[in-house]
């Protein structure tokens, strides 16, 4: 009384104008609407991969992509673009966050780049084997390390930027 069971090679639901909205066969399930909305409080759970041209939250709602026990990867042959028109983007991890570009550069394009938990070095005794470095920035934005001195050593090593 509370369930409908269908045994068939294919099951299909069409709209009033005959457009397939939902189709099921042994190999795949196709949702043919312009938008798929998942309204459950726990979101959607996918046991394997998901392929979609767009993932978006409702206006003024947060979008979270989460993998509590495994990894989360986004792959695209022409790049992955993440954008927040309003608000911020956060990447949180219990372990490392690695940004890697195998054939390009990493660009941090912002008014301010903060490293709030970067430990500040202290001077040890003269001749100490402890090497301290400062991070220097070229006019084009390229970063390089310079062996720290009493004052900044970036100016004297600026030939690296050329």
TrEMBL record:
Coiled coil: none annotated. One of its GO terms (biological process) is heart contraction. Pfam families: Sarcoglycan_1. Component of the sarcoglycan complex, a subcomplex of the dystrophin-glycoprotein complex which forms a link between the F-actin cytoskeleton and the extracellular matrix. This is Gamma-sarcoglycan. Keywords: Cell membrane, Cytoplasm, Cytoskeleton, Disulfide bond, Glycoprotein, Membrane, Signal-anchor, Transmembrane, Transmembrane helix. InterPro entries: Sarcoglycan (IPR006875), Sarcoglycan_gamma/delta/zeta (IPR039972). It is found in: Cell membrane, Sarcolemma; Cytoplasm, Cytoskeleton. The keyword Protease does not apply. Belongs to the sarcoglycan beta/delta/gamma/zeta family. It is a single-pass type II membrane protein. GO terms for cellular component: cytoskeleton; sarcoglycan complex; sarcolemma.
